[in-house]
Amino acid sequence: MKYSIAIVGPKEEILGFAAIGVHTFSADTTEKACDVLFQLKKDMLADGSQESGKKFAIIFVIESVFRDIPQEDYDKLSTGALPAIISLPGNRGSTGFGNEKIRRIVEKAVGSDIFGNE
């Protein structure tokens, strides 16, 4: 199976990614981003014999809409190996949210904070 890469976020922040072949999904709010992510996840879980759309290995989500996704929804979206859902700083720069999210995931997997204090 062939996988693609997607990005979800405000249109003005994701439009440039289309030029390098990334599939873009516009979402100006957290609620819209959740709807898009659940639909993409549903497509991943669809029966392999039916072509229900693109299959994504990685879905980047702009921090401004990602950071307010409820933990319960994030837990549902992150079950399984694919797609990997990764926070990406927007045009205003990083808030540190993505780094903190990765830190918590690694700490949970390894059992300790291997990044140390910054």
Structure overview:
- This protein is of the alpha/beta class and 118 residues long.
- The protein has a single domain (4-110), classed as ATPase, V1 complex, subunit F (Rossmann fold, 3-Layer(aba) Sandwich).
- It is 38% helix and 19% strand.
- The protein is built from 5 helices and 4 strands, in the order βαβαβααβα.
- It has helices at residues 11-14, 30-45, 63-66, 71-77, 97-110, and strands at 4-9, 23-26, 56-62, 84-88.
- The protein starts with a strand and ends in an 8-residue tail after the last helix.
- The mean pLDDT is 82.
Output the strand order for the largest sheet: 2-1-3-4
Q: Helix segment count?
A: 5
> Which percent range describes the beta-strand content?
15-25%
Structural class: alpha/beta
CATH class category name: Alpha Beta
- The SSE string, one letter per element, is EHEHEHHEH
Annotation keywords:
Rossmann fold; about 40% helix
Question: What is shown here, in short?
Answer:
38% of the residues lie in helices and 19% in strands.
What order do the helices and strands come in, and which of them pair?
Layout: E1 4-9, H1 11-14, E2 23-26, H2 30-45, E3 56-62, H3 63-66, H4 71-77, E4 84-88, H5 97-110
Parallel strand pairs: 1-2, 1-3, 3-4
